[in-house]
Design a protein that fits this description.
The chain is mainly alpha-helical. It has helices spanning 24-28, 56-78, 95-122, and strands at 33-34, 51-52. Helix 2 packs antiparallel against helix 3 (95-122).
Length: 128
């Protein structure tokens, strides 16, 4: 039994084929469907109009870890050349190291908040 193509856009999804399928990318233009973003050096996403798919909690967790590591690394890179005073040994934490750790922690919190915002605004479900 042959299946006929119908041109009507309001044809219900009854298994009848359409001459012109309606796909999300046709309505919204080219975009990348991703589970985890690729990042540029400044932390921005490298994809074209990304759409996160899959489990939301996994996407948030991945983005948080990715951005946190990148932010902490950026702080560390910016602070290179800072050295502790030489010749003294103390049980107190080095103030330069503690300041660096505090800056990294702040950068991680900012990155995690960015991850939450990105996933919340771009997540499209399980890709159904």
């Amino acid at each position: 039994m042959a299946v006929q193509k119908k041109d009507s856009a309001d044809t219900p999804d009854s298994g009848v084929l359409r001459a012109k399928p309606v796909v999300k990318s046709a309505a919204h233009g080219d975009h990348d469907r991703i589970v985890m973003a690729s990042r540029t050096a400044d932390g921005s996403m490298a994809q074209v109009a990304p759409e996160f798919i899959g489990d939301r909690d996994v996407a948030v967790s991945a983005a948080k870890e990715q951005l946190a590591q990148q932010a902490a690394s950026a702080v560390d890179t910016a602070a290179r050349g800072v050295s502790a005073s030489e010749g003294t040994v103390s049980s107190e934490p080095d103030p330069d190291v503690q300041a660096l750790k505090d800056a990294q922690d702040e950068a991680v919190q900012t990155a995690e908040a960015q991850a939450e915002r990105e996933i919340s605004s771009l997540h499209e479900g399980l890709g159904d």
